[in-house]
Design goal:
Elements (H helix, E strand, L loop, with lengths): L5 E4 L5 E4 L4 E8 L5 E7 L13 E6 L2 E14 L5 E8 L8 E9 L5 H9 L7 E6 L6 E8 H7 L8 E6 L5 E7 L6 E4 L4 E9 L6 E5 L20 E2 L2 H4 L3 E5 L6 H15 L3 E9 L17 E6 L4 E12 L8 E7 L5 H11 L9 E14 L5 E7 L3 E14 L2 E5 L6 E4 L6 E6 L6 E4 L6 E7 L2 E10 L11 E8 L2 E7 L5 E4 L5 E6 L5 E4 L7 E6 L6 E5 L2 E3 L5 E3 L16 E9 L3 E14 L7
Length: 613
């Protein structure tokens, strides 16, 4: 046996002292809760100076190392022999020193339990703890707001149906943490007259429940339930035929996923659907004298209890191990085994209190919102209404479209034109005839001539004897011809003079006729750039008879003027309206018109977000 049961370390894990004079050393180890221990030290012991608050205590039970604790309060008692009593908690409580400030979210598909645990441990200011093993690969989604790390860590396996336990390795630094399934193979047995001094059995059906209604995040009609993942039922049942219908409501607003809420509620119902049965056993710790033959009792280990006289033969897990005095009565040990916690909700509340958990969770509020649109539209240019649904939108209660059809509206006429060249419509041509206006005739005179002298030249010619007939004809048609006898005509010329004179002529009354052919042709016209003066006013035009809709790209032939568009909006894989995206509704009229429209939204939002404006 050691001369000491306790070693003292500073916060840097440097050994300071070994307490040989410590007495009334006790410990209490509870499944998935903070372990505690106590010890006393004489007031005049010089080593009390090393027992400062938050220094570490390494506790031994004989040669067996129990665990590592840290010092919290100490109480000075003055009796015949004054002493100081020290209370200690497991070093897992160092996670109480760090917080997850504001809002944190992690988990869901593809993110497994081990990654969630590491996310919490990564928030440590001083990296004392690291994950060693995790037997679970769940994909639950977790959300925390203003939590300490221990509370966040303990909340991770709460939704699991499987029984679990946290294990620690504080023999090296940084310390190791593991989340393990309970091994249902029993590690030890307890028998009357062997290692059992007495046993106390408790059967308490007070908190028995066979139907549970789970509720999660939100309030009122917007509070999360499990109908969407439970075939439309908002409750779970177990052992109704055995114990009758006994209902309760389970409210835990930390849950925002219906799958996670259902899993957690099923775990709670599994415990509550059977009466609480526990055994408090005062036993003998045979491992002190024969450690190789008899194992140590540890929380979470299954043990087999046998008591032939009372016909007890059960296998149940240890939920608590305590020793009242390691040094004075090392063989005395108290065990508590049970099929569940006596009051699971009370146990959770107690854990939250002991861990100093901040139970402030941001919820949300119901909001009403209206978006208004008005514009002209036609079949090719529908009225488009776009609205955004943020990721933080917890629930959408209503989404109603309302619109009215009105006459097309314009506010002015007159447009500016640039220079334009165009071609007229071509003509097919044709033939046209006409008579001129008849003339009455009359006497007319030509322009007078100035007269002048004129001559002609003739070449010589040899002509045999004979007669040559010469014709001279005036313009008046008088024949002056006569016969002239020539023999030899030499080269000569004739010369004559014309006195200045005028000519007169008479035109009788007459008409002129003409024929005109016009071929196929076109005309080219140039319109120069110009503007028209604006003429202001409100002018109404045609009005459509009816409209149909397209919602997120899909045609919806609903011709009503007030429509619930929730069934037509695009959905995610869970059948919920898509968040974090824009949605678009088009109102398509059958003609030119004006449309007044509004979208009315009733929604439930939480209080998370990055801004304050």
């Amino acid at each position: 046996m050691k001369k000491y049961n306790i070693k003292i370390y500073n916060q840097n894990m440097k050994e300071l002292a070994r307490l040989e004079n410590a007495f009334d050393i006790s410990y209490d180890l509870k499944l998935n809760e903070l372990w505690t221990c106590k010890f006393k030290l004489p007031r005049d012991d010089k080593k009390t100076k090393y027992c400062e608050i938050f220094n570490f205590v390494e506790l031994f039970d004989g040669d067996y190392r129990v665990e590592l604790f840290r010092i919290l309060p100490n109480v000075l008692t003055r009796e015949e022999t004054p002493y100081i009593e020290y209370e200690c908690e497991h070093v897992l409580a160092t996670l109480l020193d760090d917080v997850m400030f504001k809002y944190h979210q992690i988990g869901n598909v593809g993110i497994y339990t081990d990654r969630v645990i590491r996310y919490v441990l990564d928030r440590q200011a001083v990296k004392r703890w690291q994950l060693i093993e995790c037997d679970f690969r769940r994909q639950f989604e977790y959300k925390w707001e203003n939590e300490n790390l221990l509370a966040a860590l303990f909340s991770i396996p709460k939704p699991f149906v499987d029984k679990y336990k946290w294990e620690f390795d504080t023999t090296s630094y940084p310390w190791g943490l593991s989340l393990k399934r309970l091994d249902e193979k029993y590690k030890a047995d307890i028998q009357y007259k062997k290692n059992m001094q007495n046993i106390e059995k408790t059967v308490d059906p007070t908190n028995l429940v066979t139907r549970v209604y789970p509720l999660g995040y939100g309030e009122g009609d917007n509070q999360l339930d499990i109908k969407s993942v439970n075939s439309g039922k908002d409750y779970l049942e177990k052992n109704v035929s055995k114990y009758g219908l006994k209902s309760t409501i389970l409210v835990d607003r930390r849950f925002e996923s219906p799958e996670t809420l259902k899993e957690y509620a099923q775990m709670v119902l599994n415990d509550l659907s059977e009466p609480y049965v526990s055994y408090k056993i005062k036993a003998v710790d045979l491992s002190i004298s024969q450690p190789k033959k008899y194992p140590k009792f540890r929380p979470g280990d299954y043990i087999l209890i046998r008591d032939i006289e009372d016909e007890i033969n059960i296998k149940v897990p240890i939920v608590s191990v305590s020793k009242p005095d390691i040094r004075g009565n090392p063989f005395d040990i108290n065990l508590e085994i049970a099929n569940k916690s006596q009051d699971i909700t009370g146990s959770i509340s107690d854990l939250m209190e002991r861990s100093r958990i901040n139970d402030t969770y941001a919820q949300g509020a119901t909001n009403l919102q209206q978006i208004v649109y008005a514009d002209n539209a036609d079949r090719g240019h529908p009225l488009k209404l776009k609205f955004y649904i943020p990721q933080e939108m917890a629930r959408i209660n209503k989404l109603i479209l309302n619109y009215t059809i009105e006459p097309f509206r314009s506010y002015s006429v007159g447009l500016e034109y640039k220079e334009t060249k165009t071609t007229s419509t071509s003509s097919g041509g044709g033939s046209y005839q006409s008579d001129s206006t008849s003339s009455g005739g009359g006497d007319y005179g030509s322009t007078s001539s100035g007269g002048g002298s004129y001559s002609t030249t003739h070449g010589a010619a040899d002509v045999e004897g004979g007669n040559v007939k010469v014709y001279l004809r005036s313009s008046a048609g008088v024949d002056w011809s006569k016969w002239v006898e020539f023999y030899q005509v030499n080269r000569h010329e004739h010369r004559f003079d014309i006195e200045p004179h005028t000519h007169s002529f008479s035109v009788e009354a007459h008409t002129h006729s003409f024929s005109l052919q016009i071929p196929d042709h076109s005309h080219y016209v140039t319109i120069p750039g110009h503007t028209h003066e604006q003429k202001h006013g409100i002018y109404e035009g045609p009005k459509a008879r009816r409209c149909y809709l397209t919602v997120d790209g899909e045609a919806v032939y609903n011709y009503g003027s007030e429509i619930n568009i929730i069934p037509y909006l695009s959905k995610d894989e869970d059948g919920r309206i898509q968040r974090g995206t824009w949605h678009e509704v088009e109102i398509v009229p059958d003609g030119l018109t004006r449309i007044n429209a509004s979208i009315f939204i009733q929604l439930f939002t939480n209080s998370r977000g990055g801004g304050d404006y």
